[in-house]
TrEMBL record:
BP term (GO), one: methylation
Role according to the record: Involved in the biosynthesis of phylloquinone (vitamin K1). Methyltransferase required for the conversion of 2-phytyl-1,4-beta-naphthoquinol to phylloquinol.
Name assigned to this protein: 2-phytyl-1,4-beta-naphthoquinone methyltransferase, chloroplastic
E.C. no: 2.1.1.329
Entry GO MF terms: 2-phytyl-1,4-naphthoquinone methyltransferase activity
Taxonomic classification: Eukaryota, Viridiplantae, Streptophyta, Embryophyta, Tracheophyta
Length: 266
């Protein structure tokens, strides 16, 4: 039995292992998860198998640098108890695990079972002992299943843009952070510079969607442009974080203005 994976409410059964793989956890939630963002959940389940490959392809590996910057902004350090919200296949959780080391603890939370299954199998296919400090939890970012003041740092990678109620998510993150601790949220930057916006849209239309089309996922990636249009600018994100209860908030542009990182202190 894989004891590194749980649902917010507790789950457990194990499928037979695929050839060359460890046993695969099946998620059985005893309580109903909040399903208001069902369509997005289905979308992330569907793109899970190609998500990592496409990230590498589309950013020419640059997303790894932006993710390392996000970890550094979170202030996570050796021995900390940290949370990665909307963890997907686990990139930020693995980086956090390196950062906090074997004496620390990492929780990766996501509502997509398929993304979590890949995160779990990545964890088991790597021999790093510190990765044993990661637990994967199936749960919803708008209702975090943790007590107040549980974590020394929280990260969110490309998640805030995708949740239905951003204020609620930031309120929840603020609640579970210890006073004085930080959230670091990396995402696409909704730029106020028309040149950056046009370049970003061109990249999506002529690079991202055609690349996703190779995997039969063009429609799924067309959603990206709309989601950035509907996202918040850096200043708006800073205001939202303050409204959610954080004591200070600062947004940084990275990746030549294509990406942005909100850092807020509880
Ligand atoms: C674009 S992926 C990012 C994955 C990963 N953090 C990364 O940086 O590669 C967004 C993730 O957010 C998750 N997600 C979206 N809304 C969520 C919610 N309300 N609760 C939990 N996870 C959510 C999706 O399932 C998906 O795995």
């Amino acid at each position: 039995m894989d004891n590194a994976i749980m649902s917010a409410a507790s789950l457990h059964r194990t499928l037979p292992a695929l050839p060359g793989q460890h046993s695969r956890p099946v998620f059985r939630s005893k309580t109903r998860l909040v399903r208001c963002s069902n369509e997005r959940q289905v979308l992330f389940d569907r793109i899970a198998p190609v998500y990592d490959n496409l990230n590498d392809l589309l950013t020419v590996g640059q997303h790894r640098i932006w993710k390392r910057m996000a970890i550094s902004w979170s202030g996570a350090k050796k021995g900390d108890n940290v949370l990665d919200v909307c963890c997907g296949t686990g990139d930020l959780a693995f980086l956090l695990s390196d950062k906090v080391g074997p004496t620390g603890k990492v929780v990766g939370l996501d509502f997509s079972k398929e993304q979590l299954l890949i995160a779990s199998s990545r964890q088991h296919s790597q021999s790093k002992t510190c990765y044993e400090n990661i637990k994967w939890i199936e749960g919803n970012a708008i209702d975090l299943p943790f007590p107040e003041s549980s974590f020394d740092a929280v990260t969110i990678g490309y998640g805030l843009r995708n949740v239905v109620d951003r204020l609620k998510v930031l309120e929840e993150v603020c609640r579970v952070l210890k006073p004085g601790s930080k959230v670091s949220a990396l995402d696409f930057n909704k730029s106020t510079n028309p040149f950056s916006t046009s370049f970003q849209e061109w990249m999506i239309d002529y690079v991202v969607v055609p690349a996703a089309d190779i995997y039969g996922l063009a429609n799924e990636y067309r959603y990206l442009k709309r989601s950035i249009n509907e996202f918040l600018t850096g200043k708006e994100l800073e205001r939202l974080a303050l409204n959610a209860g954080f004591s200070s908030a600062k947004h940084f542009e990275t990746g030549g203005g294509l990406m942005g990182n909100l850092v807020a202190v509880r």
